[in-house]
Amino acid sequence: MNDARFNDPRVRGIVYQGLLAASVGALVAGGAYNAYVNMQARGIPMGFGFWNQIAGFDINLHLIPYSGLSTYGRAFWVGLINTLLVAAICIPLATLLGFAVGVARLSPNWLMSRSALVYTNVLRNVPLLLLLLFWYNAVLKSLPGPRQSIDLAGLVYLNNRGLFLPAPAALPPAAWFFAAIALALAAVLAFRTWARRRQERRGAQAPVGLVATTLLLGLPAIAVVAAGAPFSIDIARLSGFNLRGGIQVIPELAALAFGLVTFTSAFIAEIVRAGVQAVPYGQVEAAAALGLHRGLANKLVVVPQAMRLIIPPLTSQYLNIVKNSSLAVFIGYPDLVQIFAGTVLNQTQAAVQVMAITMAVYLAITLAVAAALNVYNASRAPRER
Amino acid sequence: MTDAIVFVRETSEPEDPPPRLSRGAAAWAKANLFSSIGSSLTTFVFVALALWLLPPLIGWATTKAIWAAPDGALCRQHQDGACWAFISAKFDYLRFGSYPIAERWRVNLVEAVGACLIVWLLSPGAPIRGWGALLFFVAYPVLAFVLLHGSRALGLPVVDSLLWGGIFVSLLTAVVGIVFSLPLGVLLALGRRSRMPVVRSASILFIEFVRGVPFITILFMANTMLPLFLPESWTPDRLLRPLVGIALFSAAYMAEEVRGGLQLLGRGQYEGAMALGLKYPLMMGLVVLPQALTMVIPGIVNNFVGLFMDTTLVSIVGVTDFLEAMNNAFKDPGWSGPTIMATGYVFAAMFYFAACYGMTRYSAFVERSLAKGRER
Description:
A: 3 domains, 12 helices, B: mainly alpha, 2 domains
């Protein structure tokens, strides 16, 4: 290549990119050709025709109607909903626990901050799979049967069939109860807007917190007194050889949720600690110089700045929860991977299609959350002068 | 005229006693445990919790545990303590899997050489690290493959990868992950920052795709789809498939770490290299990458910790790693006591914790020493 034209970076760029595109194209085409030949040789179905075929297997947890006579497509939806169920349970719990541990890490009390440190260090350095197997195989499966259930305050029961929680059942006065809550919410919002406008105009402050608490607790309380109890609590009771009533959480879900929540909370705690400590101490001193007491300084100065640092890594932890919930396959919880990329793939042999759909689902979730995060970041970016 | 009131001190004021609590254990306790009513209450709650929880746990692991037993009979009736005898009975299996006993020296040799190379690479100020890197990333994989797999020419019997297992496979998957993912990650990171649109979008596509899906689906893909995409006669080895998956998976995460380092490096370094007339490969190899990679050593090590923990998932595609070897050991009917599982998992947790926490400490140490170097 002594040609002078090759010294032009534009020409070189086009040649390199052409080479890359050609080799990627050749790789894809070769792979597709091989896949076509191999799939035909092994009699693997090509299209998505399996979607409407009868699945013929049972799933022990389904939130939408499902039976062995349902289709593979139905099984996919059951798996996806179960994956989202795990995320919906774990994300709030892990956030609560993680923030609690993260704040404990910053506590001036030595015992408390050390305990939080041990908690985060241990959980961040042990594989999640090990935690899941430990809780599922060594703890939940070796619990006593329903007759010797471990009970907590007579409300929650734990045995080798799972965790039994009390279930609220709505009674007729529930409508009044919910109406009272809605009314209280609307009143609080209106009061807050009015108070903020007034403060901007005249500088006078209104006790928003006090009024909001009173409204939010008071109105539903009045509804309960006037119309009667809105819920009856259905507690699991022993009948025959099993517990009946309440909400039964199957042991697989209990182990998965427990493992995921504890594991992720350690990472969230570390994010919270790092976020709070990253706010320069001068900010706290400046707030004190303005005459803000400690609580107000935290609320108005430290927390808003820390949150801007906390939110992006926190979101990626939420995505990790969604992705890590695929470890369900190791303990037999019927999530998307276990049902679809496991059982359905084995039965239909349609590996390429099934894996493509499964990965597309996770990618869609990841990209949607990333897009939402970008919007949030743009809205919260500090306003530069 | 009135006399001015004049006051002249003639003796000094008596000295204040020294502050009673400024040093010593009592002062420390007052500041850190009893600084306020809330803090004191917290201290009492935590002490009560520790007194309630710790003695039974420590007793379970030490005084009430069975440390040595010829077979599982003793552990079978034992309800309230760990059965460490199980670990020592199964230790060889947990380390090597079913690797033939006569050939296990090969595994030990590979592990020892690998440990020496890693210590060389990671000690700050070690001599000729470039040569160490060359040995580790090029010569060592060849040596390890020849030794572990065997070679007729050298008179080493071939050991089928079906027999490999235990801690050795866990380490192997992690090291293969880092040896192949780091160079690949560097390439991807450079590609992502390239000015050529095709190169850049191909890199972004790969990185974001891999980071967007769970590791398990990558493993499934490597296991079920790789054989489909290759010609019939090439069917890759059962252990090789997940290794390819691991290398690709962790390359995407490495790429993001390296990109962070590239972004931290000031433009001046690039401009200086260009002003010296260095071409792109020389500029990257001599000026940019050495600095960028050194800056992200902590990130790379943390990534490696995650990779090491993720290797536990390879058991889903039929590879016997340490955790799977432990699960297999539970199936021995001779050792089926009530606390065997808990003992095994606690031991595995201690192993992973020791390895991962050690690496985390190392990365914190590098971070501190790097910060020292950047101080002005």
